[in-house]
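Long-time lurker, first post. I've been practising inverse folding by hand and with some scripts of my own, and I keep getting stuck on stretches where the structure tokens seem ambiguous. Below is the full token string for one chain I'm working on. Before anyone asks, I'm not after the true native sequence, just a reasonable design that respects the backbone. If someone could post their per-position residues I'd love to compare against what I wrote down in my notebook.
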């Protein structure tokens, strides 16, 4: 690795070496494990994006899909207080998703937020104001701080890049737990492959068995046992089978089917909901400052690559602008926020630096469910298409690197 000194004295790592390549269409490069290139120099992540574009078309076809999903949510919600659960964080994507469900689809959502102690106050104010203006009940699921903190420290010690595994699983279990408790059959999440992309598998592998393995090795606080209405941090294959097939809870990625343009959405949210940007994408979670920092300095991972690449492919950002931005350290890496996160975890700076210096690993270094999932590649594809699991799950597990 070489160090590049920018005019503003910001230092970033620049890839070097004869085998280094970057996609000629997007920003993905050989820092992404398993990436491949065609004869024109276009990467395999672009190929996944194009397949998803065909699978989830916009325009009239997208509107038809949204109408079908809306009718289904109304039908399963008949006689109940709510038609669906909408996961909210106070960020752009979830705020717009909630606004669209209420004002455009006329649904009766229950907003659910997962609080693990690292929420951005600006995002919190956005959530409260949005729900009040839309007349939506906001239900916050607050994690046991001892468990949440212990999981974060365990994954730091595990030396893996997907160090927010606990929060990611906690969000999912909060949504499933509330849906099970209220008898709701649809979860609506504000994600879009056109604006966020899909991370390489080894950068972000979501798996309950993996979480338990890391916690068993590095954790010190016992995790609560799974209960359908209070699942804690438990979401393995058995739990997913229960929610998907016994409770018949489906996942709706609404933004996959909508013409969702971020710059236009920012203006709409500010006008309709007095929404304020938390500072940067993913800044609704303060812990992301530490994650982006560690990913960059320890793993040579710039998580903006798959985010900006999606925007470039979708025509929402020029490749030139994206390349310029990744030449500088992400503004989310706020030193004051990183220090706050370290202190909130109860770590000293010396302990944190030991974590930084430990050899990098991935989920493959710990027990996980990936070999089992590969045996059921066909059923997982079908489940993705039937909304029994998120629609991007199949491509995430089998088409996004190694």
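-- Answer (accepted) --
I ran through it position by position. Result:
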């Amino acid at each position: 690795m070489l160090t590049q000194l920018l005019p503003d004295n910001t230092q970033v790592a620049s890839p070097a070496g004869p085998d280094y390549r970057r996609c000629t269409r997007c920003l993905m490069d050989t820092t992404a494990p398993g990436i491949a290139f065609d004869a024109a120099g276009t990467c395999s992540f672009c190929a996944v994006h194009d397949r998803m574009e065909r699978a989830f078309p916009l325009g009239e076809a997208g509107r038809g899909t949204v109408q079908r999903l809306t009718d289904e949510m109304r039908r399963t919600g008949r006689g109940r207080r709510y038609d669906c659960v909408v996961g909210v964080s106070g960020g752009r994507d979830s705020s717009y998703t909630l606004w669209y469900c209420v004002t455009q689809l006329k649904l009766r959502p229950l907003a659910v937020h997962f609080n693990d102690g690292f929420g951005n106050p600006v995002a919190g104010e956005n959530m409260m104001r949005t729900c009040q203006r839309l007349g939506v009940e906001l239900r916050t699921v607050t994690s046991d701080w001892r468990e949440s903190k212990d999981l974060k420290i365990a994954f730091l010690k595990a030396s893996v890049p997907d160090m927010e595994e606990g929060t990611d699983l906690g969000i999912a279990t909060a949504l499933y737990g509330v849906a099970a408790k209220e008898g709701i059959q649809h979860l609506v999440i504000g994600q879009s492959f056109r604006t966020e992309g899909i991370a390489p598998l080894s950068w972000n592998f979501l798996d309950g068995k993996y979480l338990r393995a890391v916690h068993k090795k590095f954790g010190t606080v016992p995790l609560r046992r799974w209960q359908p209405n209070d699942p804690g941090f438990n979401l393995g294959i058995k739990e997913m089978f229960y929610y998907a097939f016994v409770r018949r809870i489906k996942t709706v990625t609404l933004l996959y089917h909508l013409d969702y343009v971020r710059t236009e959405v920012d203006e709409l949210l500010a006008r309709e909901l007095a929404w304020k940007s938390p500072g940067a994408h993913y800044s609704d979670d303060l812990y992301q400052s530490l994650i982006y920092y560690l990913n960059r300095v320890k793993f040579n991972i710039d998580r903006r690559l798959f985010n900006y690449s999606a925007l470039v492919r979708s025509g929402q950002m020029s490749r030139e602008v994206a390349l310029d931005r990744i030449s500088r350290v992400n503004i989310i890496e706020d030193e004051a926020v990183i220090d706050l996160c370290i202190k909130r975890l109860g770590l000293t700076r010396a302990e944190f630096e030991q974590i930084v210096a430990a050899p990098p690993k991935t989920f493959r270094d710990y027990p996980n469910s990936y070999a089992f999932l590969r045996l059921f590649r066909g059923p997982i594809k079908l489940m993705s298409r039937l909304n029994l699991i998120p629609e991007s799950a199949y491509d995430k597990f089998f088409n996004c690197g190694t």
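A couple of notes from the structure itself: Confidence is low (pLDDT under 50) at residues 1-9. DSSP finds 17 helices and seven strands in the chain. Happy to go over any region you disagree with.
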